[in-house]
Amino acid sequence: MLIDDDVMDSIDTSLRNWKSTFNPVLEDLNEVVLWALITVIRHTGVRLTEALNLNSDCMNRDLMNKHLMEIVSPKNETERFIPVNRDVSVAIDYLCKATEELRSELKTDKLFYYFQKINKKHTPLTQYEARRWLGKYIKRFNIGDSNGNLAFLTYNNFRHQIGTELLNNGMSPFEVKEYLGHESMHSTRLYAKVRNDRLTKEYKKLGFVGVVENSTEDIVDEDGNKLDSEKRLMAQLPDGVCAKPIGKKVIDCRKPNACLFCPKFITTPEFLDIHKNHLERIKEDKERYLAEDLMGSEYHLFETEKALADIISRLSALQEGGTLNGDK
């Protein structure tokens, strides 16, 4: 199950705000442990057992000086190195500082220990306790959807989310398999199916799921005001406008290469030629793409063609002085 965009935004906001409130050395250990655990799994999609098995020396750098995390999987007794972002690096750094004295005292390299208040002792964080804490986190920070309903989340939901997003953003199925540590391609194929099923539902409802306007001058914010130069600059795309930064500050868009399939995407007739060129390039290169036989590539190409054809049809009607329905 994919996580709702509003829920993901709520999670990301809570993690940022939570981090800003504590010092890893002085803070309650359990606070740092839970924050770090959710941060790591949210941004990497590693299994809960893999996260709980992380050692203090799990962070490395590649030849380009980018962060790598060493994952040792208890499930299949394998290890792998995956690239991670700064959020993960900071989370591990905080956790290392918070547990430094404890690890020295217990003579262990394991990072995920917590304080048992009942027994007054430190012990390795178990899967049961980690799942129970996740439920408490959801209630504490009111993690919910746009309707105000509390989210139902498991750590595995983050894994499904990351796997699907990696495929969406152009990573090959084999690369996703290696990144997530799947033993076979079977699990990876499920992510492609989830993505395809979701897109199919959107297209059945709306066709092109974004918004077509007469002109960028017609685009307004949620209060009906025209965009100032700063908002226009933040929202501008090569082939349209993204509505997301118009309404709120965007730290990191999780759909950087999937604007055509995003309901926040807005386009106008001034971008018509760009869309036409995009469609022509896809048609010219289609055989080469399909020859690579990447999972989901055929579906993605045909759905992109369909979206572009729909956009071009609507924009052409507007440019000719008609309406979105083709009436003049």
TrEMBL record:
SUPFAM superfamilies: DNA breaking-rejoining enzymes (SSF56349). Residues 6-204 form the Tyr recombinase domain. The keyword Nucleus does not apply. Keywords: DNA recombination, DNA-binding. One of its GO terms (molecular function) is DNA binding. Coiled coil: none annotated. GO terms for biological process: DNA integration; DNA recombination. Belongs to the 'phage' integrase family. This is Site-specific integrase. Pfam families: Phage_integrase. It comes from Aquibacillus salsiterrae.
